[in-house]
């Protein structure tokens, strides 16, 4: 009888530990998922910040370079696209497009020494550079969180819990190829 | 029995090695002249000003010079500054009132990295102005110490002169999970299992919910600030008590000379 009691206690302990293990992984997933959402919210804040900067920037540039109509149009389009994007994937695409359009604007700006000497323009450029940098930082933090989460999703034994409770794979925010290097002047005819 | 339990426990409680390698040397004060370009007079004045700002709880400002960003394995000064800020945890935790002024001598680049909490008082445009009009002119004539002092002075004016910063958007709460989708078991079981899971989470260090903070503090990890007063408390008149876990997100500006 005594033996049976011990076995019963052992089984109960095992059961509890198993439950704890399950709870632990489940909660870790929930926490990580929340962490990703949070990190994404930070990314969006910075994307919004950049969008908010654009009217001012465009107006200043227009004062010196009125005839560069094409780029202003492209910027407006990219901004509208970002504002209209719903899913995270769409937002990433739109944000990358915006980055490359702004890169082109910076190249154009190089041709206007008067504009570059403008104090308020310098400040705007600081804001833009700072915001680009913030986006890069928050993007990296977001991607790190996504990586941690996706790794755990695929690792054993957490994998079981992930598939049991449908923790879906999270999307990375991949930077556009063009953003990794400084914009280059394009002399090609287009 | 005991062995069985300990085996099971060790299976659950395995700790993943935290690969938080340190890249930079620990801070020795508010002024860290790793490149050796700051004169003693400027260093003293900067230290005094930084100490006062820290003591009054207005800002924790770190002035750092390095030989080159390559020496630490980075590609640009922005990345270097973010990493250094993160590693030292400049600023008060929660207030995030840290600022890092980083100058890389060989690259001829300066970066002012502003903590989250001071972004309103020191917007990027202001930071850029401080570099362009405050620091760079001195650097052009190799007066590095004076240039950095001028920069610090302008920063302190920005911090102390401006209206109190508006609290930034509220941090997202942790929330409660969406309930556990299995049948209700015994309460005791629930409590015990939760306890076990809590222990497990603590040990595995996975209990973190990401706020802005990049690294989390657990019981035995004093966090990114990681430079507690300890041995320094002997000179209670002021001095450097280490940075206290603030964070930044790439705000500020950079420039060259």
Task: List the keywords.
heterodimer; A: 190 residues; mainly alpha; 6 helices; 0% strand; rod-shaped; disordered C terminus; B: 257 residues; alpha/beta; 5-stranded mixed beta sheet; 5 strands; 36% helix; elongated
Whole-number mean pLDDT of chain B:
76
Radius of gyration of chain B: 22 Å
Low-confidence stretches of chain B: 15-19, 162-182, 206-237
Identify the most extensive interface between protein chains. Answer: A-B, 47 and 51 residues
H and E order of chain A: HHHHHH
Described by strand count, sense and barrel closure, the largest sheet of chain B is: 5 strands, mixed
| C-alpha geometry of chain A | rod-shaped
What is the overall number of helices of chain B? Answer: 6
Number of domains of chain A: 1
Give the helix level of chain A as a range of percent.
over 70%
Quaternary organisation of the protein chains:
heterodimer
Percent strand of chain B equals 5-15%
Order of helices and strands of chain B: HEHEHEEHHHE
């Amino acid at each position: 009888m005594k033996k049976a009691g011990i076995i019963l206690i052992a089984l109960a302990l095992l059961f509890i530990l198993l439950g704890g293990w399950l709870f632990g992984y489940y909660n870790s997933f929930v926490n990580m998922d929340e962490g990703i959402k949070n990190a994404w919210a930070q990314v969006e804040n910075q994307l919004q910040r950049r969008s908010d900067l654009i009217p001012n920037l465009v107006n200043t540039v227009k004062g010196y370079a009125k005839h560069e109509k094409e780029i202003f149009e492209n910027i407006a389009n990219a901004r509208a696209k970002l504002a209209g994007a719903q899913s995270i994937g769409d937002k990433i695409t739109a944000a990358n497009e915006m980055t490359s359009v702004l890169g082109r604007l910076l190249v154009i700006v190089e041709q206007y020494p008067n504009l570059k000497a403008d104090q308020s323009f310098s400040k705007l450029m600081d804001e833009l550079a700072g915001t680009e940098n913030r986006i890069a930082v928050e993007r990296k933090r977001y991607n790190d969180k996504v990586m941690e989460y996706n790794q755990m999703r695929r690792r054993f034994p957490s994998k079981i819990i992930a598939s049991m409770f449908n923790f879906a794979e999270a999307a990375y925010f991949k930077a556009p190829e063009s953003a990794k290097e400084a914009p280059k002047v394009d002399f090609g005819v287009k | 029995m005991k062995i069985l339990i300990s085996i099971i426990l060790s299976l659950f409680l395995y700790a993943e090695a935290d690969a938080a390698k340190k890249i930079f040397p620990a801070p020795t004060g508010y002024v860290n002249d790793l490149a050796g370009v700051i004169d003693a007079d400027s260093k003293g004045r900067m230290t005094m000003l930084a100490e006062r700002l820290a003591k009054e709880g207005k800002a924790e400002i770190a002035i750092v010079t390095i030989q080159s960003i390559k020496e630490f394995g980075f590609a640009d000064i922005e990345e270097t500054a973010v990493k250094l800020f993160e590693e030292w945890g400049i600023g008060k935790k929660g207030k995030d009132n840290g600022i890092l002024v980083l100058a890389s001598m060989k690259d001829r680049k300066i970066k002012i990295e502003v903590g989250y909490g001071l972004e309103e008082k020191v917007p990027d445009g202001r930071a850029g102005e401080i570099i362009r009009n405050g620091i760079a002119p001195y650097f052009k004539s190799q007066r590095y110490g004076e240039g950095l002092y001028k920069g610090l002075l302008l920063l302190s004016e920005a911090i102390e002169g401006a209206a109190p910063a508006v609290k930034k958007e509220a941090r997202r709460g942790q929330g409660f999970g969406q309930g556990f989708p299995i049948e209700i078991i015994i309460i005791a079981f629930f409590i015990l299992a939760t306890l076990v899971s809590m222990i497990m989470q603590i040990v595995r260090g996975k209990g973190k919910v990401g706020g802005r903070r990049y690294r989390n503090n657990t019981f035995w990890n004093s966090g990114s600030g990681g430079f507690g007063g300890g041995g320094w408390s002997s000179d209670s008149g002021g001095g450097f008590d280490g940075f206290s876990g603030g964070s930044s997100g790439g705000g500020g500006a950079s420039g060259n000379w």
